[in-house]
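#lab-general

N.A. 3:47 PM
ok so I finally got the sequence cleaned up, no stray characters, all 364 residues accounted for. can someone with queue access submit it? mine expired

B.Y. 3:52 PM
send it over

N.A. 3:53 PM
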Amino acid sequence: MSTTKKFTGALLATALGVTTLGACGSGEKKAAETGGAAKPEAVTLVSHDSFDVSDTVLKEFEQQSGYTVKVLKSGDAGTALNQEILTKGSPRGDVFFGVDNTLLSRALDNGVFVPYEAKGLGEVKPEYVLDQQHRVTPVDSGDVCVNYDKQYFADKKLAPPQTLDDLIKPEYKNLLVTENPATSSPGLGFLLASVGKYGEEGWKEYWGKLRANGVEVVDGWEQAYNGRFSGSAGGKKAKGDRPLVVSYASSPPVEVLYADPQPAEAPTGVATGTCFRQIEFAGLLKGAKNEEGGKALLDFLIGKKFQEDLPLKMFVNPVVKNAVLPELFTQHGVVVEKPENVAPQTIAENREQWVKAWTSLVVK
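B.Y. 4:20 PM
back already:
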């Protein structure tokens, strides 16, 4: 999922470049122990900037596998994937994490990954397995949705919108801020929600109506959420005057987590009929120097320990059936029953022209 979904400070990635996680030398094997061939000490994970995992969880993998994990953070998901396409066959690491269903076909068509059916894949919910050749493994999911400021709507005695159709009603005029799909992952997700809902013939008409109803467009998530949204922003008093913003279904639990003191109820809500589901994948890179370590790491990423660590580290949902969500998510989160979806191949074939058409229509 994109780096844009994290709040400023604690939720933004703290470093670029290579980060070594775990104790040095945990993967060392003397030549005598391996019949004269030294086992690689490290396995390298190439990722977007938002990858995060608890130290205790990662150490357990390192102790069990004998590998030290290095994380190479490479910007947002699109930038990171572009670099792997350019270095195809001579990758910078062993595993790539962070390609989602909006970019999946691009990665597969460029032959970045080699097939590997990860151990435990049978525990992954079938709807997340989009590549039957197992060139990529589903790791997490998240829903791009319109969030609303509960206090604003309570003060106005106005019911918050719940669907895409609601957003073009006159009572919600000049209330919504969204991100530009050309520059923002949630912005693209929201555009795709409209494509999924209204189809190729109807989404442009919808955006014409949304524009006439006063939608505001900004470049990225941080500007939209922390700058223009009137709801609480990471526990800080917001300065914006727009009570509707395109964000994530996981934003309300995160609001509670980073508020001081923590409120009994999240200050923001989710319009569950406005959502597009993003699914993030990881894959074994073609030409990986440590292929066995890469396979072990992929097994780990869909293991119960890592899957249950995901919600409070990257604020996304696990994809395995037996993972237990933290109480913060069950108490303050929402379940999106019917998110909009668009097939990865359809996205790959149309993404650029959809964004160009959207730009011509909305950004004038």
